[in-house]
């Protein structure tokens, strides 16, 4: 069963850059899928579609059987959580606590449910002791963890991370890998975009290789053998 299905998706930016050129791919439910490809391949552009921030100009995307369209935007965003590459694009509230609460509050959850989700999420990423800190006083890695907690607190079915290890030191990368292992144990699907083939080979059970806005290959880890 595929939780995400992309068929013949095209996307052109306003300056006419043809970033996605008929890309098709699928993400199995419960998988740890790595989306790999060089810088400029179209990874970020694709991820913005999977969370309905960008809408398909041509082609289609289904998430858990629901077609991504203006009518389903909100529903899709509750099913698919996206962690941006740069946490400064995502973390903006006055305190870490408020930041993580934003999504669950927006979903209309009750106050007690919001509190317990925020607490669980901040503890999961090891940021509970920083709950009252202003995000702009946190380090890059800490902000990233708050951004991840904000996504976790919404309890989406799919968690997508764009270059999650970029700019993290090895300690920060280990923490991140532990957090991802925790999601996977909860039965979540994880899609991680990276240009780091070693990370993909170590972590993923499914690999999608894209280049120049198209899918080159989809399959198991054997795809990465001799590709360094
Ligand atoms: P990746 O995440 O794999 O590095 P991107 O999706 O960021 O790739 O970029 C795909 C292509 O789209 C590149 O040619 C990039 O220069 C272009 N691109 C990305 N964002 C924009 C934008 N906002 N406006 C115009 N072109 C863009
Ligand atoms: P109010 O009664 O003003 O609505 P809340 O209890 O909802 O207050 O939250 C006020 C602030 O207290 C929040 O912005 C957050 O920083 C902090 N906070 C709320 N709930 C908790 C909690 N369970 N644990 C720690 N801090 C909390």
Automatic annotation (TrEMBL):
Biological role stated in the UniProt entry: Part of an ABC transporter complex. Responsible for energy coupling to the transport system. Probably part of an ABC transporter complex. Responsible for energy coupling to the transport system.
Record carries keyword Transport: yes
UniProt GO molecular function: ATP binding; ATP hydrolysis activity; ATPase-coupled transmembrane transporter activity
One cellular-component annotation, GO: ATP-binding cassette (ABC) transporter complex
Residues of the full protein shown: 11 to 238 of 283
Membrane topology: Peripheral membrane protein
GO biological process, one term: cobalt ion transport
Source taxon at top rank: Bacteria
Protein keywords: ATP-binding, Cell membrane, Membrane, Nucleotide-binding, Translocase, Transport
Similarity remark: Belongs to the ABC transporter superfamily.
Source organism of the structure: Thermincola potens (strain JR)
ABC transporter domain: residues covered: 4-228
Taxon lineage: Bacteria, Bacillati, Bacillota, Clostridia, Eubacteriales
Main location: membrane
Keyword ATP-binding: yes
Subcellular location: Cell membrane
UniProt protein name: ABC transporter ATP-binding protein
């Amino acid at each position: 069963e595929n939780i995400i299905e992309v068929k013949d998706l095209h996307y052109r930016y306003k300056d006419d850059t043809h970033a996605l050129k008929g890309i098709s791919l699928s993400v199995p439910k419960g998988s740890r899928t790595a989306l790999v490809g060089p810088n400029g391949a179209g990874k970020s552009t694709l991820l913005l579609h999977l969370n309905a921030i960008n809408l398909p100009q041509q082609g289609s995307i289904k998430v858990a059987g629901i077609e991504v369209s203006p009518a389903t935007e909100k529903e899709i965003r509750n099913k698919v959580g996206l962690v941006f590459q740069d946490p400064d694009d995502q973390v903006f509230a006055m305190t870490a606590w408020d930041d993580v609460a934003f999504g669950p509050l927006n979903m209309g959850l009750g106050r007690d449910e919001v509190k317990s989700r925020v607490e669980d999420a901040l503890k999961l990423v090891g940021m509970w002791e920083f709950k009252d800190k202003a995000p702009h006083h946190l380090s890059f890695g800490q902000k990233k963890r708050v951004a991840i907690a904000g996504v976790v607190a919404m309890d989406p079915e799919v968690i997508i991370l764009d270059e999650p290890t970029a700019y993290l030191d090895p300690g920060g990368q280990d923490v991140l890998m532990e957090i991802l292992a925790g999601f996977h144990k909860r039965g979540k699907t994880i899609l991680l975009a990276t240009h780091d083939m070693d990370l993909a080979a170590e972590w993923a059970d499914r690999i999608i290789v894209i280049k120049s806005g198209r899918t080159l290959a989809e399959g198991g880890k054997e795809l990465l053998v001799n590709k360094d």
